[in-house]
Amino acid sequence: TETVRMLILDETTSGCDGPTEQAIYKHLQRLNVQFISISHRKEISQYHSRQMTIDDKHTLIPTLIMRSRL
Length: 70
Description:
By secondary structure, the chain is α+β, with helices and mostly antiparallel strands. A two-stranded parallel ribbon has the order 1-2. It has a two-stranded antiparallel ribbon with strand order 3-4. Helices cover 20% and strands 29% of the residues. It has one helix at 18-31, and strands spanning 6-10, 34-38, 50-54, 60-64.
């Protein structure tokens, strides 16, 4: 059997409700799989450490996602 090390998710959760989307990303985190998500949903940023945005001029804007630790 082969082990998956990285996934590219292109609008994978676009048809899912919030709880299902959350379950998918939490499961991926538990599996310790690296993943790249392509999405219009801002809610998934909580599952990522970096974000790449394409603006209206097609310019790539890399962003480090900062979270406070409570």
